[in-house]
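Amino Acid Chain and Its Fold in Token Form
===========================================
Purpose: to set a sequence beside its fold so the mapping can be learned.
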Amino acid sequence: VQLQASGGGLVQPGGSLRLSCAASGSILSINNMAWYRQAPGKQRELVATITTGGSTGYADSVKGRFTISRDNAKKTAYLQMNSLKLEDTAVYYCNADVGYNDGSSYRSRNYWGQGTQVTVSS
């Protein structure tokens, strides 16, 4: 199982970016999905979460600006980031609880994507 994050880049303050996180491999189910970020010199922090049913949660710092969504058929989560600020600069990581068959039974495991750099700069 792999999570492939993409969509990062350089954007000016006030701009927008859309991140994608695509899961691949022998997947039976994808449960909760989330985006985290880690800025230089800081701890990794939770940005947004989404359940299988589409319930969402956000860090206070991004509420009203970021939107998490998912396409279950495509096994992909998205993070639409609007009104970006300098302090949104970070490496963004996707995270997912994935169910798979280990050959004899159903298992669930938490996976991380490789991270995508978002830089907000004028």
Notes: The chain has a mean pLDDT of 95. DSSP finds no helices and eleven strands in the chain. The longest strand covers residues 90-101. The radius of gyration is 15 Å.
